[in-house]
Design a protein that fits this description.
The chain has a single domain (12-222), classed as Alpha/Beta hydrolase fold, catalytic domain (Rossmann fold, 3-Layer(aba) Sandwich). Helix content is 31%, strand content 21%. It is built from 5 helices and 9 strands; from the N terminus they run E-E-H-E-E-E-H-E-H-E-E-H-E-H. The strands form 2 sheets. Strands 1-3-2-6-7-8-9 form a 7-stranded mixed β-sheet, sandwiched between helices. Strands 4-5 form a two-stranded antiparallel ribbon. Helix 2 crosses helix 3 (119-130). This is Acyl-protein thioesterase 1.
Amino acid sequence: MEGLPPFKVIEPQASHSSSIIFLQGLGHSNATWHAAMHKALASQLPHTMWIFPQAPTRYVSMYRSEHPAWFDVHQLPPGNDEFDESAVEHSIALVERFILWQVHRGIDPKRIVLAGFSQGAATSMLAALTSLHDLAGVASLSGWLPSKALRMLHSAPTTPILWCHGGADEEIPLSMASDGLNALCTDFKMSSALVTFRVYDSLKHKLCDDELKDFGIWLNYILQ
């Protein structure tokens, strides 16, 4: 599909019937996540194409310089009043283009998963919860939902969610994940049955083997 930004792909090893679009965290390279998922999970999902869009390089206020980012942040943990609305909307539209690319290739939206780490998780969550497509699910790894972004939601979400978070995360504290989940279930009446919530007590702002294992189990379940 023409007009897509740079991205990396793990091609399916069997007939292509599902896709995972994975967004990196702030300051990360998609190459890092491409390598990690290729090593840890790709072989478990032979019919799945993994797609890793590269975040655009933009000015990040926290660093006072340019870095790969889906939207601007001023500090970590992010402040509740922080919301780079125009960049968030641009990034959501970018994700939607990748979804459409897969749909045009014949993949049922119900076989497409969005996922991401940290800022990529926040972007994936917002893209999934506002998409006009009925997606297979969305996975948040050490992510959060900006409180001001919740106004972008207009109805009770029906997309299955895997939410994984470190109990010792100081950059995106566990409380931010809990607050986002509570808002979805309380304010938007999302069914708690749609959510798989996993906490790794000693984990900081990174991934661990148990988290990758849980991610793989969840992916196999919703894409079976």
